[in-house]
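agent> fetching stored inputs for the adenosine-5'-triphosphate docking request
agent> found them:
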Amino acid sequence: MSSDIALNDEIILEVRNLSVSFSRGGKEMKAVDDVSFSVAAGETLGLVGESGSGKTTIGRAILRLLPDANTKSEGAVRYKKTYLNTLSSTDMRHMRDRLQMIFQDPLSSFNPRRNVEDIVAEGLVIQGKPASERKSRVEAALSAVGFDLATVAGRKPHQFSGGQCQRIAIARSLAVEPELIVCDEPVASLDVSVQAQVINLLQDIRENRNLALIFISHDLAVVKNVSDRVAVLYMGRIVEIGTGPQIYERPAHPYTRTLLEAVPVVDATRKIEPDGKRTVMPSRNRPQGGCAFRSRCPRATQICAETVPAVTPAPRGQMVACHHPHDEPAPGMAVRTQR
Amino acid sequence: MDATPASHPILSCKAMTCEMDSVSGPLQILQDINFSLDTRRALGIVGESGAGKSMLIKAIMGIAPRGLRTKGRIELDGQDLSALKPKQRAKLIGRKVGIVFQNPMSSLNPFVQIGRQIEEAGCIHLGMSKAEARSRAIELLSFVGLPDPEDCYNYYPHQFSGGMKQRIMIAAALICQPDLLIADEATTALDVTVQKEVLDLLQTIQAQRQMSMILVSHNLGVVAGRTDEILVLYGGNVVEYGPTSEVFRNPRHRYTEALLSAMPAMDQPAHTRLRTIPGQPPNLANRPAGCPFAPRCPSAQAKCHEVMPAMSAGVHPSHRFACHFPLAEIAHVQ
Ligand SMILES: Nc1ncnc2c1ncn2[C@@H]1O[C@H](COP(=O)(O)OP(=O)(O)OP(=O)(O)O)[C@@H](O)[C@H]1O
Ligand SMILES: Nc1ncnc2c1ncn2[C@@H]1O[C@H](COP(=O)(O)OP(=O)(O)O)[C@@H](O)[C@H]1O
Ligand code: SF4
Ligand code: SF4
Ligand SMILES: [Mg+2]
Ligand SMILES: [Mg+2]
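agent> prediction call returned; pasting tokens
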């Protein structure tokens, strides 16, 4: 089974050859470069990669939330039978009933003067739902995230904690009863205990509603917990995509291994020996030829400098873009017990 | 990990308490903090947002916000800080302690060349000459791993990435050759790969320069494996304090254990349900009478709501915790 395809047959989202470039000060920067993946109903696809690797841009490109002015997108985004990238903006607005996005900092996406119940109803107003239906949907959405409409009604966003605000943002997305939510770093700003609540909540909702999630995060432990499949991005390209076990137990791409080795795990028995590695990030404006990871890659050879590695199936079934993919288990992954 | 016989405390806090006024009455920000850090050792301070980690550091450093009332005894390299005049105290701290904060952008002046910013503390506290300070700064830039340090000296902060700015902050913290390096969430804003590099760098420097180090983080993984001891703060109280490996292997306080189980682990399969901690941290203006964790603790009993648990030791004498009904001791496997 090759894992760029979703786990079951019911693919609802298909992204093909998506590229996004931004122009900044006369220069063009390719933020997303020829990215393809699909997501099935009820499935969670984790999207990991360093800051600036293009995670948010992919999410925004799917929902067409990128600024028009300095952006150029190519490729196709198909949601069921509809090609989103060619829709009129009115038709796209209607698609937001089914596709939603939530962000890392929920507070900044709220109007501070509005009541919580109005914030949660925002999507329903855009859809033109009648007031009576709005009320019942808001109540249901709030209750799905553990709030009681009667107790929170009339309160403003600043009266809630960070975790509560994130739950309100989730309620706002849920109110329109979407089939897919792009979650961009939804727990990054939360404390461990609150993070656990929000993750459990998203998992419950996913299960109860057969909701598909694209879960963007730089925290590989969180992504492991929530995802069925994982895509690893490096400088705008997918370098590896596969099931959770493929990516975490037998990562094929050297970059995936670099990421996994850097995860700060709580391990009472491990004393970390510092290594003197220094990351030199290659320029985005003047891309080098060959593999973009080669300046940081311990396995790089001549061919890596000459030819961009194509995405091909790795022995364990995941898809990988590397001339010399790994096939041995990730060091320490099997024995490393966290606690 | 063994204590070297010649080590003595570089920093110690005894019965330290911090209070501050607010509209809802006095806030008990830190209560009865006791710890001691030996030379060449690394201490991790962990706790969730609002637990008091940064206030503890700021109170020690004498840079707490106006209105903070600090009581208790803080000793730096054997000197009682409260016995010193403010100027002397600032000078002592400036020479002995280097500090790196979370956000390099707010600590670095965008209009001043980074080399000059690194020199500043050296000129103030050690009275270095211009030339001497400059060569030290360049040496340090190369030491923290910046390529072409002589060129970097003349660059401005915006010309560096987040990880490089954090290296520059580390260089600035080292100019006075401190005995103690404090990093307060210094890697929180960085990518995992860069975070690892900066943490590795801190650890290497600590060993090479025979310094003591305090790593403050809300992320328990950051201090695991990189510190000798850890101190767990909850609502302004130390709830557990001991050798890092002991505390992680066998947490005794119920809060430490709850925190550890709330973290997603790399060895759990997908969709494993995480343990949550219901409720909220204590209101500092109106603390509960007993254990601060009692309102959220699944093991709380009547006594927990009435009597504040004192710090007591387990079988391992330096592993201490404040819990009436601690988790069981796990036998040591040889
Ligand atoms: N509107 C824009 N105009 C110009 N450049 C942009 C714009 N949005 C993003 N970029 C650039 O595109 C690249 C990818 O950005 P993106 O926000 O997708 O990264 P990310 O992977 O989500 O990173 P992070 O983990 O920091 O959120 C970055 O180099 C960023 O600076
Ligand atoms: N300038 C300030 N004025 C009043 N209260 C403050 C101030 N700074 C921090 N606090 C309070 O002190 C407590 C501890 O804060 P802090 O040390 O910053 O926590 P941490 O670093 O552990 O996240 C919190 O309740 C916080 O709200
Ligand atoms: S293609 Fe070459 S340089 Fe790129 S990741 Fe694979 S081995 Fe490394
Ligand atoms: S003292 Fe009681 S309430 Fe506090 S942590 Fe221990 S068992 Fe829980
Ligand atoms: Mg982003
Ligand atoms: Mg802090």
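agent> quick read of the result: Chain B touches chain A through 53 residues (CB under 8 Å).
agent> awaiting further instructions
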